[in-house]
Amino acid sequence: MSGTVAPVPLQASALDTALAPFYWILEVWSGLMTELYNATGIEILQYAFMHRALLVGLCIGVMAPLIGTFLVHRQLALIGDALAHTAFAGVAVGLFLNATIDFGVTPYLTAVVVAMISALFIELISEVTDAYNDVSMAIVLSTGFALGTTLISINAGGLAVGVDQYLFGNLSTVTSQSAALLLVLFAIIVAVVGITRNQLLYVTFDQTAAEVSGLPVKWYNRVVVMLTAMVVVGAMQIMGVILVAAMLVVPVAGASQVSRSFNESILVSIVLAEIAVLAGIGISYYAGTIAGGVIVLTAVAIYVAAVVLGKLQTAFGEEETPEMGSIDMGEARPSDD
Prior knowledge:
Shape: globular
CATH class of the domain at 10-242: Mainly Alpha
Radius of gyration: 21 Å
Low-confidence stretches: 1-11, 320-329
Strand content: under 5%
CATH superfamily of the domain at 10-242: ABC transporter involved in vitamin B12 uptake, BtuC
């Protein structure tokens, strides 16, 4: 009938209601981009999907190096890759539930849940079995990818078609709902790091001293891996599962070549990540290529330039660039209040 409206799944409706403030932010942002297009005539700014992709990219450029700086100094650079594969399993779970029982939720939401649970399992395996972190990461990575491929193979005809955008990322498939979820994750990550910065620093650079001082080290370790899971799922929209871990590591590695303190390293890594994201999105749009690959290649090129700059600084007699693990412990020690 002409007056019939298709029912909206209860879960999706409740989610959209919760995301209403973030939809408003997206509308404001889109309006600003439209005004900028009218003023400059830049072609990339005339499309609504590019407005969302640019906002998602800007958020990724902040939260990925923000968390990645802690990971690199903890020698956990590969945890992003492990959680990306478990996020793929989460996507497969969402697609499978939607295909079989009409669950009605975005796969990105199930990816967040599965990735955060997997992050906790990485810590749990290390704590219970005394295995090295790379062992627990390898176990979780293999299990996550195996689960994802199994679920896809069970219903291959209905799921395989939609998997590519999650494996490789796609600017045009960034929906308003997925962009709003990214904004939620971004707000949580920035807020948690802002509140627990000193404690995370202390645990990162001297776990023994942190334990002696009474800090719940295991709890803060879990906070870091769960925040990493959030970053991975958020960045997966345009980076894809295969390349998402690069944004956690490459900008941080580049910043370490020219930075002389932890705070400076975070700021420089964010700047480098934003340059890589914006340049990568622009190049991929005009060249018709996959954005994730171009972003990573741009980030690697910036890393190489940072290495050369760091060597030149040393050659011309400036203070030698500190190693990745070096830091003024005064930054890391939490305040007494």
